[in-house]
Recover the amino acids of this structure.
């Protein structure tokens, strides 16, 4: 794990520690009955109690561990959970506590309807070149799953759960990038954000040859407790089927359901103040939304000068996600980070989510080490205290996800000055791929602006394939405008809808 990956997993995580005392009954190593309602029952009982903040104390041997020292706490692959199981398609390895990852996270193995706590031991880790420290059962910081994703004879790292309620995964041929979370509370709001923590996990032993693995998680924070079940299926798209059951201690006015967290530093649409040889740096370049009415929307991301909130309101969408559409090395020219291999994440609601909005938060960042983009579903009605709220969805970790491939989709947004003008006009160029085979003469461009003036909108064939749309925008003294564009044929949309917030 690289330094950026460690920091990104923990930047927003609160420093939490010891566990709810009633749960210490399992620490003896004896097995306990476990079924599909066990974690929900624990969460319900936890929510009925006053929140108790965990302790953060670490043994002296870990208290002063630096980033480099923590990297030397390597889990032994030969001690992986389920290793050696006949026809096993999954293995689990555990993260050591220390550095930024102080909370003790309880891990359990579930088999034949029985759950048993997994004890910590220094024998599970390789500390070279240093000797193993003398430690009692201090627990773990999190875990990761491995599976033969890219080759049948090698177990690739598939996903990781580490820090607050963050988790990440990859599809075939991809590397880590953006993260998902169990729940977002107050992202981008003036008050301090609250970061719920997955405080315990139950890892279900998969049957021989099973294509999926099941993980249960218990979430806790001052405002809410929750029970999560993840059914994880690796592949070209690695898919998480998520069942989230929330038990608020207080009314949650602005809960973020199915949150995604990513990084956008710069791209061709905005390089103000950027002195960098690379043409772009981001884990995701746009928010995609398939509206309840069936419209396909693409909203390019910004690195704004101040925190920006955007909402796409209505009935629950067919899906939404933070996407990485640039897939060529030349798009980034970064031989270490390989941003072209970062996954997209697509949320597909299951069941009726009712009214609300897909909410996007964009936060200023001066570098590529801090996640600054958050997207989630915000219900129109607050989640009441003392009442269970349940949310099911399917999360795709994918290289691409075109839910309406018949429509042309945006692959790049470029903005620059209009030559020979003194009015502050901007030239906006949008490249699209795919869509129906049409002659350019059969197409028209529809452009709208909330304020200002749009001029000279055109569409033409792009060398190498696809279309290019260009238009001039004059702000007329305004500093913020909402812009929109789509390509039509005889009044019918043949492209997705491009939306953009322009700022002076």
């Amino acid at each position: 794990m690289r330094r950026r990956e460690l920091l990104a997993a923990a930047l927003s995580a609160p420093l939490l520690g010891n566990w709810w005392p009633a749960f210490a009954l399992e620490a003896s190593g004896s097995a306990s009955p476990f079924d599909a309602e066990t974690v929900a029952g624990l969460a319900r009982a936890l929510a009925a109690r006053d929140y108790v903040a965990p302790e953060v104390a670490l043994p002296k041997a870990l208290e002063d561990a630096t980033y480099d020292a923590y990297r030397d706490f390597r889990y032994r692959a030969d001690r992986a959970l389920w290793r050696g199981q006949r026809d096993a398609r999954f293995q689990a390895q555990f993260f050591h506590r220390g550095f930024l990852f102080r909370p003790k996270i309880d891990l359990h193995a579930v088999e034949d309807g029985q759950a048993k706590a997994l004890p910590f031991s220094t024998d599970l880790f390789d500390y070279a070149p240093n000797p193993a420290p003398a430690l009692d059962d201090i627990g773990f910081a999190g875990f990761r799953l491995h599976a033969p994703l890219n080759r049948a004879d090698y177990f690739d790292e598939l996903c990781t759960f580490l820090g607050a309620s963050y988790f990440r995964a990859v599809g075939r041929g991809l590397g880590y990038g953006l993260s998902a979370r169990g729940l977002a509370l107050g992202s981008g709001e003036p008050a301090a954000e609250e970061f719920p923590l997955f405080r315990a996990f139950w890892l279900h032993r998969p049957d021989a040859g099973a294509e999926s693995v099941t993980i249960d998680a218990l979430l806790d924070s001052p405002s809410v407790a929750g029970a999560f079940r993840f059914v994880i299926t690796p592949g070209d798209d690695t898919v998480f089927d998520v069942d989230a059951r929330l038990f608020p201690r207080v009314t949650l006015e602005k809960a973020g359901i199915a949150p995604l967290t990513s990084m956008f530093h710069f791209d061709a649409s905005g390089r103000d103040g950027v002195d960098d040889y690379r043409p772009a740096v981001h884990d995701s370049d746009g928010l995609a939304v398939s509206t309840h009415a069936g419209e396909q929307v693409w909203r390019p991301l910004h690195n704004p000068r101040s925190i920006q909130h955007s909402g796409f309101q209505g009935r629950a969408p067919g899906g939404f996600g933070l996407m990485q559409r640039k897939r060529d090395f030349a798009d980034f020219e970064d031989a270490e980070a390989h941003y072209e291999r970062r996954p997209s994440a697509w949320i597909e609601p299951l069941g009726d989510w009712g009214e609300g909005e897909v909410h996007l938060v964009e936060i200023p960042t001066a570098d590529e080490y801090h996640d600054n983009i958050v997207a989630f579903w915000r219900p129109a009605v607050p989640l009441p205290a003392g009442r269970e709220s349940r949310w099911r969805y399917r999360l795709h970790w994918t290289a691409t996800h075109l839910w309406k491939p018949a429509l042309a989709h945006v692959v790049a947004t470029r903005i620059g000055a209009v030559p020979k003008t003194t009015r502050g006009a901007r030239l906006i160029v949008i490249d699209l791929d795919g869509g129906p085979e049409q002659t350019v003469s059969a197409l028209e461009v529809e452009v709208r602006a909330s304020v200002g003036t749009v001029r000279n909108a055109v569409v033409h064939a792009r060398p190498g394939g696809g279309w290019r749309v260009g238009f001039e925008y004059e702000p007329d003294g305004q500093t913020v405008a909402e812009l929109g564009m789509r390509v039509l044929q005889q009044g019918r949309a043949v492209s997705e809808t491009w939306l953009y917030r322009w700022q002076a």
Notes: Confidence is low (pLDDT under 50) at residues 1-28. The radius of gyration is 24 Å. The longest strand covers residues 238-248. Residues 3-398 form a domain with the Beta-galactosidase; Chain A, domain 5 fold (CATH 2.70.98.10).
